[in-house]
Amino acid sequence: MRRTGRFLTALAALALVLVPVLAEARPGGGSSSGSRGSRTYSAPPPTQTAPSGAQRFDRTATQPSSPATARPGMAPGAQPSRGFFGSFGGALLAGGLIGALLGYGLFGGGAGFGAVLGMLLQVALIGLLVMLVVRFFRRRQAPAVASGPQGYAFQPQPEPKAFGGAGGMKAAAPVDAPLAIAPSDYQAFEQTLKDINAAWSRRDLQGLRAVATPEMVSYFAQDLRDLEARNWRNETRDVRLEQGDLAEAWSEEGEDYATVAMRFSMLDATFDNATNKVVEGSTTQRTEATELWTFVRKGPGGKWMLSGIQQTQPA
Question: Which residue ranges does the record assign to the Tim44-like domain (predicted)?
């Protein structure tokens, strides 16, 4: 009975570790998610709004062109871990160490065939939980930009066009972008920023589907479930675009893409559903965020849809 109690205690502790944690609860969860078409694994050029550049996507459905073994979200050239001691063997070792710390050791401290089977079951279960924890934090981690074009320099245009917010967004398309972005496009980007936050605050997946790609909606839905697992909800209010500029815009396979750096402010608060009290953020103090948002449309005249959010590199 004592061993059973210790085992259940260990499982409960690991289950708490597995509860999803959002570094920031606003739309996108403070992570980099989505796709940029064929440029998903290339770094967008730095801009005046985001001079430090963007982090690579740690959640994406786009497969890298090479190598074939790379997984979505991995830097090109990175190889998935293989081998016994790199996966299951390491989990078994970790499970044995946890068992030793809990007092019953790697071999369970018992005798007989039944004790050995019980030990193996415990080690396997704990090892599985350890692997899930490692995979969870690797997936949620925001690593450095993947290998790709580096050293982009911001090249201001002679007559930048501004829209929205206090600072406005400047049309500063890089020379290698064949797609021209009009003032109406910038207005659509700013409006989508507000529409995404409004639908997120209502937990309205249908509203999100109207302004974001299915891939992005799936990430929003997962983040909302993560919040719900804690019995929390996040609301962002009075979203204002403070400054923004174009990183790059291009066309491929009948679709137009535009990656835009945006600095925006808002009232960002996370509530406990049971008490309706604020557990993170504030309903009175504004916060700021700078992100690179990528939009896609089905050719000229199509509606711009959010296809990716990238966090900026630390300054």
Answer: 165-311
